[in-house]
Amino acid sequence: MTDLSTNAKVPGAETEAQFGDYFALLKPRVMTLVVFTAFVGLLAAPASVHPFVGFCAILFIAVGGGASGALNMWWDADIDAVMRRTARRPIPSGRVEGGEALAIGLVLSAFAVVFLGLATNWLAAGLLAFTIFFYVVIYTMWLKRTTPQNIVIGGAAGAFPPMIGWAAATGSVSVEAVLMFCLTFMWTPPHFWALALFMRGDYDAAKVPMLTVTHGRRSTRVHILVYTVLLAALAVGTAFTAVGGPVYLATALVLNALFLKGAWDIFRRDEAASEADNYKAEKAFFKLSLLYLFAHFGAILVEAGLARFGFGGWA
């Protein structure tokens, strides 16, 4: 573990940074979701985009997402150092200095925003800039450490990529882009609250006011169920919009039935049962939530592909 005030490392900690350490600063697993949802937003938009322009748009959105991750790790290094899940990240483990992460994040942010604007349009670039600001300043620096609603409001940062992709293609934002934003926005709280249920010890140690810490596990389970019901209604309803269709509807019906069952399983169990079975329901729900969002956006992508050949939607 690193003493962040003195940059001292524990004996045996790695101090030589490798390429993989700098890449890890960009949170590649989170970047995967950013890239995929932005890609879907780009292709689902009712506009023709040159393949090279599309490639550049996704690249710069990905770089912007990675820059956000680096700035998040720079600011949250003290929290990461005391959480088991994050203690081996590049900064708390001593392999990368905080100043390096800050410099990388700032440079990549400016690069991504400017070049996205030059490659596509300045609306998309402005949305990317706002997304980086929202994630780093509004969520990371403010909400995360001050309110149990941190992940509810802060989830907006992860919901912007499909809207940015749509704007990159069309130069505008439509109802369909907002619906894709809302799909990710409503998915984020139950996804992270399930993680918080079986990782509560980490958040306690780091003094992060997650809902599990401030309101308890029972209240968190109720919130998961409520948000899952609202999410299911939104997800199924999206099937009857311009980005939906039969393939999307079938996907949404199956996945939301499973998601609702998972939320109900979490809701109806008592604390003793949760401790006894090592949070199996919460872990299963969290794993399903990863598939949930990718599958919904994958179905939107399939509908967009079918539409280009005259088979998409309800026509």
Explain the layout of strands and helices.
Elements lengths: L1 E2 L4 E2 L9 H6 L3 H17 L6 H25 L1 H4 L17 H22 L2 H25 L3 H5 L1 H4 L1 H10 L4 H24 L1 H7 L4 H4 L1 H22 L8 H23 L2 H6 L3 H29 L7
Antiparallel strand pairs: 1-2
Helix pairs in contact: 2-3, 2-9, 2-16, 3-5, 3-6, 3-9, 5-6, 6-9, 9-10, 10-13, 10-16, 13-14, 14-16
- Helix content, binned percent: over 70%
CATH structural fold name of the largest domain: Tetracycline Repressor, domain 2
What class do helices, strands and sheet pairing give?
mainly alpha
Percentage beta strand: under 5%
Largest pleated sheet: 2 strands, antiparallel
Instruction: State the helix count.
Output: 16
End-to-end Cα distance, whole Å, is 59 Å
The succession of helices and strands, N to C, reads EEHHHHHHHHHHHHHHHH
Gyration radius, in Å: 20 Å
Low-confidence stretches: 1-13
Please state the average pLDDT score: 90
* Integer count of domains: 2
Main location: membrane
Pfam families: UbiA
InterPro entries: Protohaem_IX_farnesylTrfase (IPR006369), UbiA_prenyltransferase (IPR000537), UbiA_prenylTrfase_CS (IPR030470), UbiA_sf (IPR044878)
Membrane topology: Multi-pass membrane protein
